[in-house]
């Protein structure tokens, strides 16, 4: 994996926007995530669109996951969240923003449909956050490394982490539809972004721990083009932190996307 350590969350967001913008300029299919960490990256990309002319025309978006039981117009559904926080501010066709159907009467069929749809496209870059327990998407610990889009029960810690987005913890859905780890790995480039000391243990397990279903994000170790982009606090538990910084500073010039 490519490990990029930046001094601040703001520097992380700027670097993430730089990477994603390279794919946007080619009209690529983008895999996006919701949550707190990507917001600063989205805001920087919006700024570049509005002030510097970065065009998203021709791009498509596939979301990682969706809560089960929420209407797409519910303010905390991920279908609504990505539009409110990002795509509504861009020149991207709303019909080209896709997410699993969380309000389907047959969630198993909805998961299979989404898997077929995303398999038919080539996701050029998949943006990922990481949970404090190492989950990506909603692939909780013990998820199969070869899993595909499916119905999952949320871990209690994930429910607690997400309660801040709802009025009460009881309102947080307990089930989701999520891309599987094998689905995620089909993207051409995986970009995992994390900031803050609360993510340090999960980042250490992802980068330096064993490949294990107990840390789903460790599946990035299997990918030929994975970038872990973190701030100093998120990097604080990495044993080889100085080596990663040295490698980053002395790497050859990037030759394109």
TrEMBL record:
Domain Glucosamine/galactosamine-6-phosphate isomerase, residue spans: 14-221
Record bears the keyword Hydrolase: yes
UniProt key word GTP-binding: no
UniProt cross-references to CDD domains, sorted A to Z: GlcN6P_deaminase
InterPro entries linked: Glc/Gal-6P_isomerase (IPR006148), Glucosamine6P_isomerase (IPR004547), Glucosamine6P_isomerase_CS (IPR018321), NagB/RpiA_transferase-like (IPR037171)
Keywords from the named record: Carbohydrate metabolism, Hydrolase
UniProt-recorded name of the protein: Glucosamine-6-phosphate deaminase
Organism: Corynebacterium propinquum
């Amino acid at each position: 994996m490519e490990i990029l350590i930046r001094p601040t969350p703001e520097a992380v967001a700027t670097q993430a926007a730089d990477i994603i913008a390279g794919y946007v300029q080619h009209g690529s299919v983008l895999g996006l995530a919701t949550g707190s960490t990507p917001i600063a990256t989205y805001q920087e990309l919006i700024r570049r669109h509005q002030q510097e002319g970065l065009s998203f025309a021709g791009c498509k978006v596939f979301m990682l996951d969706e809560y089960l039981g929420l209407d797409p117009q519910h303010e905390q559904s991920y279908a609504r969240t990505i539009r409110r926080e990002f795509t509504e501010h861009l020149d991207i066709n709303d019909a080209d923003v896709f997410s699993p159907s969380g309000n389907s009467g047959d969630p198993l069929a909805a998961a299979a449909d989404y898997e077929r749809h995303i398999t038919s496209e080539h996701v050029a870059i998949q943006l990922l956050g990481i949970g404090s327990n190492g989950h990506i998407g909603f692939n909780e610990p013990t998820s199969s490394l070869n899993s595909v889009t499916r119905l999952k029960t949320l871990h209690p810690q994930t429910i607690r982490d997400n309660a801040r987005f709802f009025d009460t913890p009881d309102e947080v859905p307990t089930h989701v539809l999520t891309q599987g780890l094998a689905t995620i790995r089909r993207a051409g480039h995986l970009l995992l972004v994390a900031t803050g000391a609360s993510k340090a243990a999960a980042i250490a397990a992802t980068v330096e721990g064993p490949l294990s279903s107990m840390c789903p994000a460790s599946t990035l170790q299997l990918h030929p083009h994975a970038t872990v982009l973190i701030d100093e606090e998120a990097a604080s538990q990495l044993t080889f932190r100085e080596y990663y910084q040295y490698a980053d500073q002395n790497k050859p010039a990037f030759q394109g996307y």
